[in-house]
Design brief:
Number of helices: 8
Largest sheet: 5 strands, parallel
Bound molecules: 4'-phosphopantetheine
Order of helices and strands: EHEHEHEHEHHHH
Mean pLDDT: 88
Helix content: 40-55%
Shape: globular
Distance between the termini: 85 Å
Radius of gyration: 23 Å
Low-confidence stretches: 170-178, 180-191
């Protein structure tokens, strides 16, 4: 465990198993890891900041040195305000590298004392992104194994509002007894 606070900034819309994997790895390396959700994103998010905060808090409840927070404006300013010494970012594939390098160098220009550390999530998550999870879920596809159960649940709730009601009322619908109906009908006709 390294002395010092690290910040893991992102949109987390929604948090994926790849994010969680990186949080777990980061929490073993840094004294404290602050997962920071960007509040003023230009993108129109699927989940509100409050929903993402709640999901990430639930997912990391067992990691005592992980804290979830939100930030506005420049990430390096927020990082300085919490005395972070390091920015943690995940790299899944070469395709991430160019964007991440550009961002790391810009952040270094803005605040030379902050180092960016890259970590790789488990290879089984190397193709998982929040954007693809949203796309698959919106098209009605399965996202099990790509996101934690609590997120899968929230996605289903969000995309099918009836799901919440249905889930809370999982009472077996009475089976229709076709034979009975037929005999009833026969009886009625006879009468
Ligand atoms: O999960 P994302 O969307 O890849 O995260 C991107 C994020 C939030 C880390 C980045 O957009 C960011 O730090 N935004 C805050 C504004 C800022 O500091 N911009 C300069 C970064 S070079």
């Amino acid at each position: 465990m390294n002395k010092g606070i690290a910040i893991y900034p992102g949109s987390f819309d929604p948090p994926t198993n790849g994010h969680l994997d990186l949080i777990q790895r980061g929490s073993k390396i840094f004294e404290e890891l602050v997962v920071a959700i960007l509040r003023n994103s230009e993108k129109s998010p699927m989940f509100s900041v409050a929903e993402r905060l709640e999901m990430l808090r639930a997912l990391t409840a067992d990691l005592k040195n992980v804290r979830i927070d939100t930030f506005n404006g420049l990430m390096v300013e927020y990082a300085k305000s919490i005395n972070a010494i390091c920015i943690l970012r995940g790299i899944r594939a070469i395709s991430d590298y160019e964007y991440e390098l550009q961002m790391a160098l810009m952040n270094r220009k803005l605040e030379p004392t902050l180092e960016t550390v890259f970590m790789m999530p488990a290879d089984k998550y190397s193709y998982v992104s929040s954007r693809l999870v949203r796309e698959v879920a919106q098209a009605g596809g399965p996202v099990k194994g790509l996101v934690p159960d609590v997120v899968e649940h929230k996605l289903r709730e969000k995309l099918d509002p009836a799901y919440k009601f249905h889930d809370a009322n999982l009472v077996e619908a009475p089976e229709v007894d076709k034979n009975k109906k037929t005999s009833d009908r026969k009886r009625k006709r006879k009468a």
